[in-house]
Amino acid sequence: MLMTQTFRIDHRFNGPHDSGNGGYSAGLAACLLPNAEAVEVTLRAAIPLEQTLRAHPTADGLDIMTDDAATRIQIMSVHPVHLDTPDVKSPGLEAATVAAANFRNVGDHPLPNCFVCGPARPAGDGLRIFPDWLQDPAGIENPNSFPVVAAPWHPTPDLTDASGLVAPEFLWAALDCPGAFAINAEPILLGRISARILKRPPASAPIVVVAWDMGRDRRKHFAGSALFSQAGELLAFSKQTWIQIDAHAPPKEL
């Protein structure tokens, strides 16, 4: 049955100009394992836009491949994982809003048209999540014992599914880019993301997005991210591996 499951990444959901946003694309792939508590997605190649991608079952999950048998490329590998809940708290909407006011402008942003964090995307098109460091005067003291970046996110009604709740792939997208800003190293590409969704929210209330640096191993950088309700309830969280690259060379596979 899984051999028949396909999906496409619409051009709206780009990260780099000519490839899919990693978090959104990983979220679509993760939806093919609906019974998993948490899912890990490893990105193997640039995610093509407007092309059919097909899921192929493996011993412990799925391989996501391009659909042309003559030029088939593995794009992602997907499997269930266990993911420990992070010890992180929401700084609150006010502090997140103040932090986001320091976010980069279009000229300073490496991917200004990214679906998630691109400042060139108008409201109602991109997610417009603009994380920056919590710092004085942030309105509310950082409740965590480590530095975090934070931003508010105001989901729009078009991001909901038939249940009236924000669709899982958009929660994955919102978890993605903030990790890169917590790492604060360029250029980097998302190599792996594991995420768990605890509760999907409606699009009628703002969400607080946070992310934090989790260290590095040579060219690999690690980050965590989380989404909170306005009341401080943990909604979803992720662990990420980012690869620092030579701007003129493709990254090595994880």
Mean pLDDT: 92
The fraction of residues assigned to DSSP E strands is 25-35%
Low-pLDDT stretches: 248-253
CATH superfamily of the largest domain: Hotdog Thioesterase
Q: What structural class do helix, strand and pairing data support?
A: alpha+beta
What would you call the shape? Answer: globular
Q: What is the total domain count?
A: 2
Largest sheet: 11 strands, antiparallel
Number of helix segments?
3
**Helix content estimate:** 10-25%
Intertermini distance: 28 Å
Number of strands: 11
The gyration radius over C-alpha positions equals: 17 Å
CATH first level of the largest domain: Alpha Beta
What series of H and E elements makes up the topology?
Answer: EHEEEEHEEHEEEE
Give an account of the 3D structure:
The chain is an alpha+beta fold and 254 residues long. The protein has 2 domains: 2-81, Thiol Ester Dehydrase, Chain A; 93-244, Roll (Thiol Ester Dehydrase, Chain A). It has 3 helices and 11 strands. The protein has helices at 22-30, 93-100, 168-183; strands at residues 6-8, 38-43, 52-57, 62-66, 74-81, 132-133, 149-153, 188-197, 207-217, 220-229, 234-244. Strands 1-3-4-5-2-8-11-10-9-7-6 form an 11-stranded antiparallel β-sheet. A hairpin with a 4-residue loop joins strand 10 (220-229) and strand 11. Helix 1 packs antiparallel against helix 3 (168-183). The chain is globular, with a radius of gyration of 17 Å. The protein starts with 5 loop residues before the first strand and ends in a 10-residue tail after the last strand. 43% of the residues are buried.
